[in-house]
């Protein structure tokens, strides 16, 4: 008789025993009709500072530093790959990014010796085997104290960074970039060299700077439902999110509330995934809002499903990030529109010519009419300052009205240094208003109605 037929039956008690001993494992997947299907989504994250002037010059200090060229090359590659708007311009840049290496070191000369427990053979014994009617040699095992040597490799980098406007020389963003490296290698095997550690530290600093100045992506693990929508979930797992959404929506409302909950969740996942693939921020925001509606419906139909709560918190964070990115893009578009407007210039008046002048005889200078006296400059109490902007925000004025007040002000005295920006951000002044303040500093005050225009010399 073929004994292999009975092997599955022989294993059956073991399988049943496993689930009997660990009922939590089965319960964990019960609501998902078996083991969960997982996939990865990539969410866009907005930069801390959105670069308005897209022609960029990098300044690495000190230039004599042995890793200055590596930092420049890695930073250029990272910035320009993440944001296609940016390009290098050494002669007449709009934005200057300065990075000063104040620390970049590595040390692989430190060793550490310590005692650890290791499970190993400790001896042998003789044990009687009644079936064989003889003694057998058995190994004894246990934890034994052993001494091990570890090579400790450490390093650190500190880069003082700031971005400034090339025209006004004002600071736009500033930060202190830091990264540390510390690893242990048993007996020194596989330890990185000092040069490799410094390269790794430069790469870490570049990642931080790139994330600060350009949109980046963040991978996220998500669960896909099984049951009646399982076939469509497999389409999503393959990256066919549009087809997944179409298929799940065509099912229509399912009569059983729990089935309908997973259907709504499936539509929400598809909408969220499509949002992260959408290049237009406005369209992506709409898809995220639709996904939020789907997730809320799923939770209402099955409030005990914990995996319906996770995407709600995630989608709120995504919406906040995309709205920030949208406001940054709007400010960028507005600033470009302003910079592209032609500046009206008065045509220069030709000096009167005379025969005497053409023969080398000095022509008497014709007296010029007196120019009207320009209005007196407003005193400091009339200028719009950081504090007045903060007061308008606290009073509940919306961004358009605050920006209009900034643009119409006869004079402004804004502090856009790093401390000033931190104070503005801490008082909930939006990026749109801060960009309007920056643009206003680079423009002359608006002419009052009825005030005579200045004539160029």
Could you walk me through the main structural features you see in this protein, from its secondary elements to its overall organization?
By secondary structure, this protein is an alpha/beta fold. Among the domains are: 32-43 and 219-325; 55-214, Double Stranded RNA Binding Domain. Helices cover 42% and strands 25% of the residues. The chain has 14 helices and nine strands. The protein has helices at residues 7-21, 23-30, 68-82, 194-213, 230-237, 241-250, 257-277, 281-301, 309-339, 355-358, 386-394, 399-408, 418-426, 431-441; strands at 37-45, 55-61, 87-88, 95-129, 134-165, 171-186, 216-224, 384-385, 412-413. The strands form three sheets. The protein has a five-stranded mixed sheet. It has a two-stranded antiparallel sheet with strand order 1-7. Strand 5 and strand 6 form a beta hairpin. The longest helix has 31 residues, at 309-339.
């Amino acid at each position: 008789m073929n004994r292999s037929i009975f092997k599955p039956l022989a294993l059956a008690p073991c399988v049943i025993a496993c689930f009997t001993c660990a009922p939590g494992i089965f319960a964990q997947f019960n609501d998902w009709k078996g083991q969960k299907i997982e996939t990865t989504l990539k969410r866009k994250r907005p930069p801390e500072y959105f670069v308005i002037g897209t022609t960029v010059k990098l300044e690495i200090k000190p230039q004599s530093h042995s890793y200055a060229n590596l930092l420049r090359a890695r930073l250029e590659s990272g910035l320009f790959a993440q944001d296609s708007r940016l390009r290098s311009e050494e002669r007449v840049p709009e934005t200057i990014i300065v990075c000063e290496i104040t620390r970049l070191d590595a040390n692989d000369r430190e060793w550490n010796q310590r005692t650890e427990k290791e499970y190993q053979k400790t001896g042998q014994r003789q044990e009687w085997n009644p079936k064989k009617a003889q003694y057998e040699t058995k190994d004894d095992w246990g934890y034994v104290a052993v001494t091990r040597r570890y090579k400790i490799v450490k390093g650190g980098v500190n880069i003082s960074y700031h971005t400034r406007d090339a025209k006004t020389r004002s600071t736009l963003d500033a930060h202190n970039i830091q990264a540390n490296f510390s690893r242990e290698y048993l007996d020194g095997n596989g330890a990185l060299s000092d040069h490799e550690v410094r390269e790794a530290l430069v790469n870490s600093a570049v990642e931080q700077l790139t994330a600060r100045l350009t949109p980046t992506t963040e991978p996220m693990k998500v669960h896909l439902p099984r049951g009646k929508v399982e076939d469509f979930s497999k389409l999503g797992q393959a990256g066919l999110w549009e087809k997944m959404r179409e298929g799940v929506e065509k099912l229509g409302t399912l009569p059983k509330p729990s089935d309908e909950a997973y259907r709504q969740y499936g539509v929400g996942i598809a909408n969220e995934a499509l949002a992260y693939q959408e290049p237009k921020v406005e369209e992506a925001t709409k898809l995220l809002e639709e996904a939020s509606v789907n997730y809320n419906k799923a939770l209402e139909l099955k409030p005990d499903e914990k995996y319906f709560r996770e995407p709600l918190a995630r989608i709120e964070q995504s919406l906040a990030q995309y709205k920030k990115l949208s406001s940054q893009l709007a400010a960028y578009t507005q600033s470009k529109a302003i910079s592209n407007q032609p500046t009206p210039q008065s045509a220069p008046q030709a000096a009167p010519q005379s025969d005497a002048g053409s023969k080398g005889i000095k022509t008497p200078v014709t007296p010029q009419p007196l120019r009207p006296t320009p209005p007196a400059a407003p005193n400091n109490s009339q200028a719009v300052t950081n504090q007045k902007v903060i007061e308008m925000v606290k009073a509940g004025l919306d961004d358009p009205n605050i920006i209009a007040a900034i643009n119409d002000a006869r004079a402004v005295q804004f502090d856009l240094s790093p401390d000033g920006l931190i104070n503005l951000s801490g008082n909930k002044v939006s990026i749109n208003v801060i960009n309007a303040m920056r643009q206003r500093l680079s423009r002359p005050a608006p002419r009052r109605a009825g005030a005579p225009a200045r004539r160029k010399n």
